[in-house]
Amino acid sequence: MSRVVVAEKISPAGLDRLRKAGHEVVDLAGAPREKLLAALADADALLVRSATKVDAALLAAGPKLTVVGRAGVGVDNVDVPAASARGVLVLNSPTGNVVSAVEHTFAVLLALLRRVPEAAASMAQGKWEKSKFVGTELAGKTVGIVGLGQVGSRVAARARAFEARLLGHDPFLPAEKAREMGVPLVPLDELLEQADVVTLHSTAMGQGKPLLGAAEIGRMKRGAILVNVARGSLVDREALRAALADGRLAGAALDVFEPEPPDPSDPLPRLPNVVATPHLGASTVEAQERVSIQTVEALLEALAGAPYVPAVNLPFRGLKDADGAAGWMRLAERTAHFLASLVGGHLQRLAVETWGMPEDLLRPIAVAAVKGALEKNTPETVNYVNALYLAQDRGLAVSETRHEEAGTYARSIRLSLSGAGKTASADATMYSGRDARVVQVDGLPLEFRPEGTVVFLRNRDVPGVVGSVGTVLGEARVNIANFSLARGKSEGAAAVITVDSPPPEQALARLRGIPAVEEVRVVSW
């Protein structure tokens, strides 16, 4: 059972799933930060939404934390590098509130175009001012969409239904994908100059720099409208206020602010040509439940030790075949663990090669190999999140090479590990996509499953070694499950012996005392 601290209001449907899975839920929604920090002292996981600042200080207060779940699309309130350095997974719900955000984009845009808030307020006062609130149609307008990800792409589809002309800007989107959407990609300046409506669906900029500063807002078409249902930090608030106040921009529809909530004296939300809502993009019953359940399901997988969880801060992208990839990652991790046991001492270099493998598997396999190599050579907890950070700290250089063609096997990996003046290498593959095997060690055809306990021997190739080894293990009541033996080109030989239980120290001393035996290592997984 894990202890999960919940810092903000999360849908009961998600919390119920945690409890049914046997985890302890500590609900601190609305509690002060001091109480939250105290509760994290023995917490395994943390669930937040957008208000809790998961910074380095908060992470330090949770020495047992393994995962932070952010119930929402972005992770702007989470210090992801700090979490990664500590080996803490950061999860979110990238699609949970997409539909709600898309619909709210059009809700505030149409409310602004048709002057709905003003007209509703007038009606509430008993007035009938039909001629006063003449609006503007969206049909025929040019809508410029900045950011064509999950939300922006859906905004494009719906804007087309309104018979609007589309322009898009997204430096990360391939041109062919944009063509499939039917959205011409243009530079940001061109979009700003041509669009009647500019709607933002981008991620936050670095170093606190807004995407739309005074210069960018100055390039916008006179009489244009700005919609921001993404992030308040994308827009220079003062530059926007000035452009709205002097009439250069016809209006703005805003759901997000920087900071949140805005200062009550901030004049921007009160301008007559502004429709402002208090960050309601994800505030629908359906979205809250989806976000909660999606985040909790990923959290449950992480707490259960799933080999692959689509976390924000994994050092590789989402895998097309996560189940198949997990097997190869596990094989790489166990093979590297085996090699680290042979090399011993300070590890200096790890070379990872793949043959006949998809391109998206190279980095996951390399990360898993680093984890396997380091986990017995460092006091810190090593996982897929912090493995590369720790490799850099420990001076372990990692190289990755992918061979398009098949090698000896249709698909295989080779790991070479060096340190303390020694080098060891191993080839590994999967039979029938399921049966993981190491098939070669230091160029010798030694085949075994990397599981349980194995005894690795190096010896001179002389008669009687196998019998002597078998006698020692038999007298120690250690049952041999498999004995893989290989001879080198010179007088050397090696063996990997799979045993049912680790040999006692006395038996290992006897093995090392056999005249022809040069090295004995025991490796357990």
General description of the model:
This protein is of the alpha/beta class and 525 residues long. The protein has four domains: 111 residues, Rossmann fold (3-Layer(aba) Sandwich), CATH 3.40.50.720; 179 residues, NAD(P)-binding Rossmann-like Domain (Rossmann fold, 3-Layer(aba) Sandwich), CATH 3.40.50.720; 134 residues, D-3-phosphoglycerate dehydrogenase, domain 3 (60s Ribosomal Protein L30, Chain: A, 2-Layer Sandwich); 74 residues, ACT domain (Alpha-Beta Plaits, 2-Layer Sandwich). It is built from 17 helices and 20 strands. It has a six-stranded parallel β-sheet, sandwiched between helices. The chain is elongated and about 105 Å long. The model has no long low-confidence stretch (mean pLDDT 93).
